[in-house]
Amino acid sequence: MVSDAFQWVRSLVFIVQMYLVMALMALAYAPLVLLDEEWAFRAVHAYCRYVRWSARVIIGLRSEIRGVPPSDEVVIAAKHQSFFDIIMIVSAIPRPKFIMKKELTRTPFVGWYARKIGCVPVDRGRRGHAIQKMIEDVGRGQLRPGQLIIYPQGTRVAPGQPAPYKIGTAILYEQLGQDCVPVATNVGVFWPRRSILRRPGLAVVEFLPRIAPGLRNADFMRRLEAQIEGASDRLMEEAGFSLIEARPPQTT
Q: Where are the alpha helices (DSSP H) in 68-192?
């Protein structure tokens, strides 16, 4: 059995090489992207496939996509536990784009490629304004086709910890009139938010049954949360994670 100390060293090596390869691949693909922005998608997919492969080889973290990844224009509402669930989702769909924090557009390499694939930057505290602008862009035909990924809880959430689902996803669902594909995951069990240590195991991202347009906002949000949380709990328990121990005690 691999000791935590050795696994920590393996994790550090993995993290360093992951960001080094990001820089190298970003530079290598940049001339092609300047000629044709379609190469941005190829670059992003190549990098995500590499990260999944190197995670398996270096730290023993295997990854599996379950369900049916969408290839048409949909809203993907995903559970977000770590950077690795982003990697896995993007690796599985053809034209990913995110609603992302505006600060990330200033991140070297990440920001440039995010703009090239059509990600939507959002100011902190102005999500409603950004969503309204995006809906207007759709009406003018200015939003690129693809799979729009949003995190209904608005941030990474540690396994077993509660966090409210925000109404922005329902607004998008209603105004865009597209199917919503919920996505569950257990990656936070192996890839914590604030730790170098990455644990071996099987990380899963599961695309759940679609929610067709037409539900009222409240009904949609209840169904979305129930699907994502129920499936994520199942996947975490499958990975050996104790939800009872992780969740705070109920107050009376």
A: 83-92, 110-116, 127-139, 168-176
